[in-house]
Amino acid sequence: KDENIKLTNPNDLIYVYPLAGIIYVIRVLFERYVAKPIGRLLGIQDRVGRNTTKDMKTTATTVSNRFKPININQTYQQEQVVSNDSGSSVSTVRYSRITRLAKFSESCWRFTFYLSAFIYGVVILLNKSWTWDTRHCWLNYPNQPLTADIFWYYMIELAFYWSLLFSQFIDVKRKV
């Protein structure tokens, strides 16, 4: 019997929590020291508006309550009308507390993680017999052996989603 093969055990899930913390730390370091410098090299700006959050919520509420845009040109015209009515610039009407550089950094992190996980998954599945012959999926069911590479693939994926669960409160908001 191969030493790298083991049966699954619910106690193995204990590895997920510290691994999720490690992935979160890697994410913070990646966004700060890799993604942001790349974004700046690409010319992505790291500026925020000067208005207060209260002013922006009022402006955003005015835009959403007053107009139901049909297309992009109509949206731009509506932003101009609201900016004239409120005395704010059009860029203030479009204001978001999250900068484009922060959005780029988070997207860059997710792209890098998903690409790495995909490549790792393809590499480890290439030499599995059940990848090529699905009848092997049912051998010794439900007690199929689990190799270390597949085990760690599942643990890393699960830890990634746990890290997202913990970081959802500080992640970039996609909609206002």
Automatic annotation (TrEMBL):
<dbReference type="GO" id="GO:0016020">
    <property type="term" value="C:membrane"/>
</dbReference>
<feature type="transmembrane region" description="Helical">
    <location>
        <begin position="111"/>
        <end position="130"/>
    </location>
</feature>
<feature type="transmembrane region" description="Helical">
    <location>
        <begin position="13"/>
        <end position="30"/>
    </location>
</feature>
<dbReference type="GO" id="GO:0046513">
    <property type="term" value="P:ceramide biosynthetic process"/>
</dbReference>
<feature type="domain" description="TLC">
    <location>
        <begin position="103"/>
        <end position="175"/>
    </location>
</feature>
<dbReference type="GO" id="GO:0050291">
    <property type="term" value="F:sphingosine N-acyltransferase activity"/>
</dbReference>
<protein>
    <recommendedName>
        <fullName>TLC domain-containing protein</fullName>
    </recommendedName>
</protein>
<keyword id="KW-0472">Membrane</keyword>
<dbReference type="Pfam" id="PF03798">
    <property type="entry name" value="TRAM_LAG1_CLN8"/>
</dbReference>
<dbReference type="InterPro" id="IPR016439">
    <property type="entry name" value="Lag1/Lac1-like"/>
</dbReference>
<comment type="pathway">
    <text>Lipid metabolism; sphingolipid metabolism.</text>
</comment>
<dbReference type="InterPro" id="IPR006634">
    <property type="entry name" value="TLC-dom"/>
</dbReference>
<comment type="pathway">
    <text>Sphingolipid metabolism.</text>
</comment>
<keyword id="KW-0812">Transmembrane</keyword>
<keyword id="KW-1133">Transmembrane helix</keyword>
<feature type="transmembrane region" description="Helical">
    <location>
        <begin position="150"/>
        <end position="170"/>
    </location>
</feature>
